[in-house]
Amino acid sequence: MTITLTDEQAEFVRRRVECGKNRSEQEVLDQALDALHADELEEEVGRDVVRAAIEEGTAQLRRGEGIRMTDRDAFVDGVMERAARIVDARKPVKAR
User: Which among 17, 14, 89, 24 has a CA at the least distance from the CA of 52?
Assistant: First the structure.
């Protein structure tokens, strides 16, 4: 496979190596692809997390375990924090 970078992309890669953020051009590309893969996994796992949370919440409501929501923003923030923890826990550990 041959990949052609724009001048701007090549300069970005060169600067990352020159300043020591990466050891090689290959490492820059590896990190970029790893980030894309992680984003895909997060999107995929994120949907699963939301579906599971909805199912659990519905089951809790049916059992009479609902809670009164008085502060919408605090509620949403709490849900997002819990979802982020679940997504982080499901991310694969990368061996180096």
Answer: 89
pLDDT at res. 95 = 60
Work out how many domains the chain is built from and give that number.
1
The Cα–Cα gap between 13 and 32 comes to 10
13, 26 in Cβ contact below 8 A?
Answer: no
What secondary structure does DSSP assign to 52-75, as a single string? HHHHHHHHHHHTT-------HHHH
Spatial separation of the C-alpha atoms in residues 70 and 2, rounded to whole Å: 56
pTM of the model: 0.48
Mean pLDDT on 70-96: 78
Residue 2 within a domain: no
> Residue 82 has what pLDDT?
84
Q: Which domain holds residue 67?
A: 7-90
